[in-house]
Design a protein that fits this description.
Blueprint lengths: L5 H6 L8 H54 L5 E4 L5 E5 L8 E8 L3 E9 L9 E11 L2 E4 L6 E5 L5 H12 L4 E7 L2 E10 L4 E8 L25 E3 L4 E5 L2 E5 L3 E2 L6 E5 L8 E6 L2 H22 L13 H12 L22 E3 L5 E3 L1 H10 L1 H6 L8 H13 L7 H62 L1
Antiparallel strand pairs: 1-16, 2-15, 3-12, 3-16, 4-9, 4-11, 5-6, 5-7, 5-10, 8-9, 12-13, 14-15, 17-18
Helix pairs in contact: 2-4, 2-8, 2-9, 5-9
Length: 474
Amino acid sequence: MENPGSSIISALGAGSGINFTQLADDLSEASFGFQRDTLEDRNARLEAQISAASVLRSTLTGLSSALGDRIRTGDIAARPSIGNSSVARVSIQPGTAPSGSYDLEVTQLADAQTLVLPAFSSADDTVGEGDLRIRFGTVSGASFTEDTEQAALDIEVSATDTLSDLADKINSASEGALQAYVANGTGGAQLVIKGDDGAVNGFVLEPTSSNASPTDTQGDLTYLGWSPASDSGELQATAQDALFRFDTVAMRSATNQVTGLPEGITLNLDSTNIGAPTTISFTQDQAAITQVMTDFAAALNDVVALLNGGEEGDTSLLNDPGARELRRDLSRLTNEIVMPGAAEGDPSTLADLGLSLTREGTFRIDTARLNTTLQENPEGAAAMFTTGPRGVFATIDNLARDNVAIGDPGSLGGSVTRLEAQIARNDERLERVAEQQDALRTRLTRDLARAESAIASSQSTLDFIRQQFEISSE
């Protein structure tokens, strides 16, 4: 910033020969420079701490996320198989770790009602004016039981509506619950109507003709009426539920995609196997578990390295409370119970999966212990790799969340919040120092300008006296 007194001193001729502008700048800098440099150095250290803490937070979050992805979709995820693959396709929810085996016997597949109605000469033939009511429910033999939970469809049919027009109106009114189209077969144009799978999705067609004397013939809407009691071959398939036994327990499903089974199992039923149950089982690659634990230990060591200052030996987090808490959490990690409620003899800690802590505070895999667990209790080991509320992922996810939480003053997140607040306070102090230094420089400049003026006046008087003395001496 330009010193506001410099122009004043220049106008006075700078009679003393002293640079008062520079002197004012130097004096103000000497008064406040130390404070400013101290605050700036302190901010630089705080920013280094924030950077180190932020990198640690990001690393912890990334470790948790990567581990979860590996368990959900990676090579460690359990793979279901079924003895008779023609009966059903089996899948499991991501993040679950099912074990054991289940028997499956399918006695009936879910199906949809299909009607093929009497033939017309052409899809462009009119069907007759009136109203068509379609009710939904269960068709059983010659009886129909309405499902009152499903609203009936009421379709207005005009005198000019063709068979194709009626198919379009049924599709529109049902909003996907029915599929109607015209098939041109060997007998002529026939209206085909299909419903959804499931026993309650059967339907009846109840037309009301506008003719005073309905004829129940082609061209009169009553020609397209249908109920199970009047069926004469129009019913091609009956709506029904899938029936099956899962581990001998009788179950049913409105569709052939069955959900809600134990351990997140989903079945897509394809055929029946009456009297010949097939077995559903699950496999988990033990070599994949070993690789995941090896990678996991390496990732934890990356965290330890960052805590120790990384390659550059940065000690900015040495005394940080959030970093100290993370060190304590890591020191307890190997023996922490990650499978509460595990049966006696089942693996329950990360140490059971071979994770161990060295004297130097780094992690390694005890291959012998991991192999013993995999050989003696493979199902128990596999059960530890789930994205549920317990297990390896839940433990690391909780560790990451606890240590990055902004609201916890004892976490890395709390450290970042505290350090940022300190920088903000230092910035405010720097602004005040700059204002005080500028005010001092301005005041000194003005005082020195007045002094320069006095010196110039004295110099002028001295010059006059000298001249007078010289004249008198002549």
